[in-house]
Amino acid sequence: MRRSAVALGRVAPAVLLAVALLAAWQAVVVVGKVPAFLLPSPTAIGGELVALWPTISGAIGVTGRNALVGLVLGAVLGIGSAVLAGLVRAVDGLVAPVVAGLAVVPVVALAPVLYTMFGAGSELARQLVAAVAVLVPVHVNTRRGLRQVRQVHRDLMRAYAAAPGQVTRTVTVPAALPFVFTGLRLASSLAVISAIVAEYFGGPRSGIGSFITTAAAGSNYARAWAFVLGGVVVGLVFYGVALAVEQLVRRRSGPATA
Questions:
Q1: What's the CATH code, domain 41-257?
Q2: Which of 58, 93, 122, 194 is least crowded, fewest Cβ atoms below 10 Å from its Cβ?
Q3: How far, rounded to the nearest angstrom, does the alpha carbon of residue 73 sit from its chain's CA centroid?
């Protein structure tokens, strides 16, 4: 009961702020007679959201699946490359400039190239775009976490004749976990954003980004905003799941990773 009250106390201010902002938005549009092509009202957007929910939910599923594949692929590559770079100095020198280069690759340029390579009807291009966006923050944060272990701690474990696996399990991993999850939380949102942006530039017309461009091209801006809300839902779900997994792992791991 007490936990529920605490959780409600944390959520209530955000909910009240959201309601106040929506009310102010509606008032500005109605009182100021703002044209719909400049800023549709929340009620108009809500009407489109309800009317088109079957289509929006389908688009959420497509974009969410692409973002999830990209998130998993990018996270595996990011963590794996960071661990390998931490073990082998030569690999670190090779991987660092590659990651730096991927960090500045524009999605608007990458997506059309991948569509040409894999075909306009394939979802793989969007998944790869999301994976590239995910790889960078996961690699950088994981590599930073692996560097947090002080040499004195490693020397102490060697003095106790600890095996390399024991050192990794008891010292390296607990020190790196908070940084890994920081990277994953950042990457969860980036995966969704990248998947949606990649949908702007071709491919199957089934994702949220595709419907946003179609609605905007037809000057139906309330509908476009309704699909934007669908993208917000996907992003919040991804971030919430990443945060929940982090909290679960921290509780099971104990105070070492807190």
A1: 1.10.3720.10
A2: 93
A3: 13
Give dist(CA 241, CA 154) in Å, integer.
33
> Three-state DSSP class for 66?
helix
Radius of gyration over every alpha carbon of the chain, rounded to an integer in angstroms = 22
- Domain positions in the chain are 1-33, 41-257
First and final CA of the chain: distance in angstroms? 25
Cβ contacts of 168 within 8 Å, gap of 6 or more: none
- pLDDT given for residue 256 in this prediction: 45
Structure tokens at 250: 């921290």
pLDDT in tens for each of the 258 residues of the chain?
Answer: 566 665 566 677 878 888 899 899 899 988 888 888 888 999 999 999 999 999 999 999 999 999 999 999 999 999 989 888 877 888 888 888 888 888 888 877 788 888 888 887 888 989 999 999 999 999 999 988 887 766 666 666 666 566 666 666 667 777 788 899 999 999 999 999 999 999 988 778 889 999 999 998 888 999 999 999 999 999 999 999 998 988 888 777 655 444
Distance CA 44, CA 51 (A): 11
Dist. CA 205–CA 231, nearest whole Å: 15
Residue 63's nearest CA partner among 225, 205, 172 is 205
User: Which of 70, 68, 94, 67 is CA-nearest to residue 82?
Assistant: 94
> Looking up tokens 């569509």, which residue turns up?
115
